[in-house]
Design brief:
Rossmann fold; NADPH-cytochrome p450 Reductase, Chain A, domain 3; globular; 26 strands
Length: 703
Amino acid sequence: ALFWEMRCDLKRRFLLLYATQKGQAKAIAEEIWQQAGTHGLEADMHCISEMDKYNLETEKDPVVIVISTTGTGDPPDTARKLVKKIQDTTLPPDHFAHLQYGLLGLGDSEYTFFCNGGKTVDRRLQELGAQHFYNTGLADDSVGLELVVDPWIDGLWLALEEAFLLQKEKEGMSSDAVSSSLYAAPHVGHELNSNSEVQNLKLEDEGVRNSDVLTQKLVDIHLVASTRDTEPSLVHSVPPVSQSALNIPALPPEYIEVQFQDTHGENPHLSSLISEGTTFEVPVTKAVQLTREDAIKTALLLELDIADTVFDYQPGDAFCVICPNNVNEVEELLHILGLSEKGEYFVCVKVKQGTKKKGAVHPQHIPERSTLKFILTWCLEIRAIPKKAFLRALVECTSDAGEKRRLQELCSRQGASDYTRFIRDSNVCLLDLLQAFPSCKPSLNLLIEHLPKLQARSYSVSSSNLYQPGKLWFVFNIVEFPACPTRRVSRKGVCTGWLAELVAPLVHPNKNTLDTKGGSSSTKKISIFARPNNTFHLPADPSVPFMMVGPGTGISPFIGFLQHRQKLREEHTDWEFGETWLFFGCRHQDRDYLFKQVHYFAFILDELRCFLENGTLTHLKVCFSRDSSTAEVAQPKYVQDVIRLYAKEVARYVCGDKKHMADGVSDAVVDILSMEMEADKLEAMKILAMLREAKRYLQDVWS
């Protein structure tokens, strides 16, 4: 009892803050909170936006921050208030001298500003005098967050112990007293019961103090691979994983309770699901396929009628589309869960009484009352790649011994590479898992607990409100996920697949879908909300020349730029306008040359030729990566190759759809600066960095 009283008196607490955009940082923070309890620590966990619940100016205990990155290197929306506060230039350099912290940043190296959300906060805290008690971790989603996250969390506990020692020494307490109180916590061992088929790993809720994992001891595991099963797969492992003792995560405590009610009532309006701003339900008035049928990717242009709304935008802005999950996938999920007859029943979702989950609250994205089908269709990201904590929970719902063992492997430390290969990199979703492991029968509450919020999808605006008032264009490729060993059927992207199906009658009309007046027999509507872009806009001074680089659908925002510039030229004939350059690339000139010339009944989409002819676009440079050339001199294949041919001009705007294109363009610009300014490569890179800082080199990179 003495030690527990001393521990309570010492308040072995640390502040745990998370800033999340799509739920990753929150899930990791919850994992840290859960493990903290097993180490005899109290994690005071809050979303970083809840600034009324913590105060960094007076915080004496260690602070752990988990923060993701969004957009083009921005902190998450939830962190904006804090970032604005700490970026106050009047703050003295010792403002946070009292603060000791450790930071874990999440990012994706396929984007230029890797982990910039975390780096921004980290750098500013350092400038204001805060001290690291633990090295900053930067986790990369392109190779697997867990490769950095897991070892970072493992090392956190010793770093915290040392931080507490240092803290108490500063307060004048003897280190001996501190040590005795730190390490004399009661320890409860674990008994593992196993059968001959598979290890039954269960982390008991009570008595766990030493670790968040259990080590599975090797007993007889009679899971012998046949000679033909020498290669691992989603459902099958090979040595050494199949013969390894496993370290698996703690079983996440359940905290949701679902009660079925009646079938009477109405589902909430979609606007109630969105907290980011005002939603608008708008009709789709045009849908045009910009690519030929034999193109590798299918690109569609949609026109929305926003005339009857107050929705406004600038060229370069983005906006979000609220989309549902695929209706067939929802029905299949209901069938597997044994709830096909319950889809139209209203359900009441509550926090389970007595749950051991810290700070358990009703998920904000789940309505207080709605039908089961509404929740699975509009609220939960059923296509999300299951996290290891979810796999750990699914283990308990699986009856087959072999399937149970494989799920244990996939969520274990030893099976990390299998998880990356067969789940993460293969884009496996819950439905794929339930098909691959048919004895796994999860409860509905587990899905609500572990599936993240269904996110609205962002798209770049491809038009100008000045050029065509009341209209909004956007362009997208229909995302395809082909069938593979881990996915039995091919699938389309959640939003792009839904939009393509929704507007199919407009893209391919026939006598059954057109009324006698030639219009669509039923107007299709979608719900949208604004996502303004504060940086990716036309130069305020129209005399400034600018260069645009946009391969594939990356050309989309530049059509809006050029429409806007054309209208300004028409309205202000006395203004001076700078030159405009557009570099565009695609695979085939005759298959996917977007905006070249598309016939849509009486409507001809011929934007690029018109811009050239009226002088809005000064230079158009194109390349085709898959077309064979008979020319004696090899033709450039990619936009960065074309840019190098025009080395005397400086690229100012970049828009593309993947890291490799953006990096290639940046490399080309560095080469140009180095050559034309007779500077070495390092100096050229510094010049490019200065252009970025001055907002003269802008990127809008999407995955």
